[in-house]
């Protein structure tokens, strides 16, 4: 099951006329998850847009800024699609947007997950290479190579998330409620189980275990091999990267745990109630990750703080100047109208 599907779990194999329809009222877990989605959208859109603006247009291009720029783009694309899913949950899991948006919404969510974790992995590798292998870094750590790797990462994330474009489907229940779900197969239970297991374990391996192992190894080697640890730990870039990585895994770990638990629900119906609450809450927490990175940049990076303050100051000055100018123009127009206005003499009655 993907994290776009709470109510119609993938272990509901058949979708005939007797299919269970989604519940009409939202549970407390769904309400909490809905608030998570809303927060992710309200903070994620402006936050990631600001990061993209600074790193893409205001700052000088460097390898580090390109990595974080791609990370912000992945989060920004995802949060732009969140209103579709917010509407879906708020309407009692009724999907009014059609089959293709059902597929695209799920694909974008998976693309974000894999692109984000892949870029975080390469950010960690880049930091390790730069500090431990400076000669190699000087020769190959270039903007051109970073752009090439970025394209490869986007393509890899699209390939791994691609099955959503094939399996996601819509179905209408008896009460005319349309759901967006994983249509692994209509009737073949064994094929459903096989496809479900393959997708979950591939996502777990490439979207969680491999990146986690890579990052742990990179930072462990950094701590061991960098003799002057103060050089490492005093760097705000180091702590920014650590905070972003930790935030990603704290947000996404519950989702992957419940994805594994859900595989057991094929054989144990007692897990359904646990998943009905656990899946939406863990998914909501995962979605929050898309708005955390800009907040972490502001809290940790002095450069980002200074840039934000400067930009806000410039915007306020421009706004005050425009207000002042509009007021001056209005006064001039009013004065001009009164100066050139025709004088009317009142005629008194004789």
TrEMBL record:
The transmembrane residues are 34-54, 66-86, 106-125, 146-167, 198-224, 236-258, 278-300
Query: For this chain's UniProt record, which GO biological process terms are given?
Result: glucose homeostasis; neuropeptide signaling pathway
Tell me the Pfam families matching this sequence.
Answer: 7tm_1
Q: Which GO terms describe its cellular component?
A: neuron projection; nucleoplasm; plasma membrane
Name where it's found.
Cell membrane
| GO molecular function terms noted in the UniProt entry | adipokinetic hormone binding; adipokinetic hormone receptor activity; G protein-coupled receptor activity; neuropeptide binding
Superkingdom to which the source organism belongs = Eukaryota
* Entry membrane topology: Multi-pass membrane protein
Gene3D superfamilies (alphabetical): Rhodopsin 7-helix transmembrane proteins
Task: Give the UniProt keywords, A-Z.
Answer: Cell membrane, Disulfide bond, G-protein coupled receptor, Glycoprotein, Membrane, Receptor, Transducer, Transmembrane, Transmembrane helix
The G-protein coupled receptors family 1 profile domain, residue ranges? 47-297
Family designation = Belongs to the G-protein coupled receptor 1 family.
Protein name from the UniProt record? Chemerin-like receptor 2
Species: Gallus gallus (Chicken)
Q: What is the lineage of its organism?
A: Eukaryota, Metazoa, Chordata, Craniata, Vertebrata
